[in-house]
Input
Amino acid sequence: MSLTLFASAVALTFVSSPPPDSTRAASGGSSRAAVPAAADSLVVEKGRRQLVLFYRGEAVRTYYIALGRSPIGDKRHIGDNRTPEGLFFIEGRNPNSRYHLSLRISYPDSAHRARAARLGTLPGGDIMIHGLPDEQAGLGPAHRDFDWTNGCIAVTNREIEVLYRLIRDGTPIQIKP
Output
């Protein structure tokens, strides 16, 4: 891991609360010029249902999200419908996703695999940041009215298009309770 990615990952552990704003520049303006060409880290606060993009330590964009159907607590095993918690990385992208576009999160990490093994189960996988399937695309922001994924982080299709452009493979993502 490069020193820059490591520094971004460490900085994520000290981020307290993201700005209250949604899908606008964190400065409160709506100018697209305020959004950089790439985000260098992400923070998800499950309790606030927010995903915040950071660039050089500054929050630049906030998105409201939907989570797994059982959003409280860390993911323990396959099928528990929980969104995992911890420090992960974006490790791939799918332009042909059933959910419009998707960004793969590096879950399970070694700690989650070890815990699942102690429990005698599988940790699960295929945790993504994604948009909406075709049959739900018309819901737009209303999809966030309830948690509906199997453990992924869902945004609108327009939002995943922006995220897909801004987030590079290797970007750290801290998922907090």
